[in-house]
From TrEMBL:
It comes from Pandion haliaetus. GO terms for molecular function: chromatin DNA binding; histone H3K9 demethylase activity; metal ion binding; transcription coregulator activity. SUPFAM superfamilies: Clavaminate synthase-like (SSF51197). Keywords: Metal-binding, Nucleus. The keyword Nucleus applies. Residues 238-355 form the JmjC domain. This is JHD2C protein. One of its GO terms (cellular component) is chromatin. Transmembrane segments: none annotated. Gene3D superfamilies: Cupin. The keyword NADP does not apply. GO terms for biological process: regulation of transcription by RNA polymerase II.
Length: 355
């Protein structure tokens, strides 16, 4: 900026430092700043005296003075903000949505923390989804699998196409990883008699560990990749999607692995301990779209009946809408998730450190 403007606007940090320091050296008691500078009283020798003002405080004060013209009041009224009652964001968005999105079939579940879009075919879902996305809220959409080629995702189909490949298989109960043919995993997906046994004769709860993921998925399973991209993900998270920020970062950035990846694990219905999880608690490095593409119904000794599975779900802390959905004969429960708000990450860390 022109030199004549420097003293008025404090246009750059260099100008501000120069003018403030210069005035301080000349012995000015206020250095032309908005607030009195901070002095320390007393010296090491015990004599009273005045030392150099705290330049950082002076700089901040000068910026405040220069940025808010005298004839204009600041936009933020601190006192009024303190007096205002805190707003319930959940209530605000719910009240607003009921007026603006009356043409969308939706409900609020999980103590009104999660939006449930019940009609996947409604083109107006996008409008309401955006409102929740801005706030970092999870959104559940029913029936997305109906848009996909179901035959591609059956266990026997994947086993037939890729059974000869090697992959790491994790035993979720004892965390032992072994490298074996993928066929062994898929053959036991719906037949308990073909599953591995652990030391005490119990059925192993296995999970395919990151197979396949990222570029491997696209190269290995082109038909399934296109099925996901064309039918489900579209502009939200396809690599070239306009809303996929990571894909538009310059090349020198280290981008997160955006997948897609196939997450496959046995259900707990055939295990003795039904409290085992197949995915550990973790934090995602980016927004994630998860699609339940297939639910295998295990057959064999020790497998819970459908009523037994429902009973296990009933023991969970579910709200009335989710309990009602479980009893719907057209619905097939396939996964139980525990999702926590990102803002609570520190509380969770503190809890984990204690236990």
């Amino acid at each position: 900026p022109p030199a004549s403007q420097n003293n008025e606007q404090g246009s750059t940090l260099r100008d501000l430092l120069t003018t403030t320091a210069g005035k301080l050296r000349l012995g000015s008691t206020d250095a032309g700043i908005a607030f009195a500078p901070v002095y320390s009283t007393g010296t090491a020798s015990g004599k009273s005296g005045r030392t150099m003002p705290n330049i950082l405080d002076d700089i901040i004060a000068s910026v405040v003075e220069n940025k808010i013209p005298p004839n204009r009041a600041p936009k933020i009224n601190v006192k009024s903000e303190i007096k205002d009652e805190p707003k319930d964001d959940r209530k605000c968005i719910q009240d607003d949505c009921s007026k603006r999105y009356s043409d969308i079939q939706y409900s609020w579940i999980c103590d009104k923390h999660v939006l449930w879009l019940r009609d996947h075919k409604n083109n107006n879902n996008w409008k309401l989804f955006k409102e929740c996305w801005k706030q970092g809220r999870p959104v559940l959409v029913s029936g997305m699998h109906k848009k996909m080629n179901f035959s591609l995702w059956k266990a026997e189909s994947i086993s037939l196409d890729f059974g000869n490949q090697q992959a790491d298989i994790l035993n979720c109960k004892d965390s032992i990883i072994s490298n074996t043919n993928v066929k062994e995993f898929w053959d036991g997906f719906e037949d308990v008699s073909k599953r591995q046994k652990i030391k005490n004769g119990e059925t192993a709860l296995l999970k395919l560990k990151d197979w396949p993921s990222g570029e491997d998925f696209k190269a290995m399973m082109p038909a399934r990749y296109l099925s996901l991209i064309l039918d489900i993900l579209k502009s939200i998270s396809i690599p070239e999607g306009k809303l996929n920020l990571a894909s538009h970062l310059p090349g020198f950035f280290v981008r997160p692995d955006l997948g897609p990846r196939l997450c496959s694990a046995y259900g707990v219905a055939a295990t003795k301990d039904h409290d085992i999880g197949t995915t550990n608690l973790h934090i995602e490095v980016s927004d994630v779209v998860n699609i339940l593409v297939y639910v295998g119904i295990a057959k064999g000794n020790g497998v819970l009946s459908k009523s037994g599975v429902l009973k296990k779900f009933e023991e969970e802390d579910l709200d009335d809408l989710l309990r009602k959905r479980l009893k719907d004969s057209s619905e097939l429960p396939g996964a139980l998730w525990h999702i926590y708000a990102g803002k609570d990450a520190d509380k969770i860390r503190e809890f984990l450190q204690k236990v």
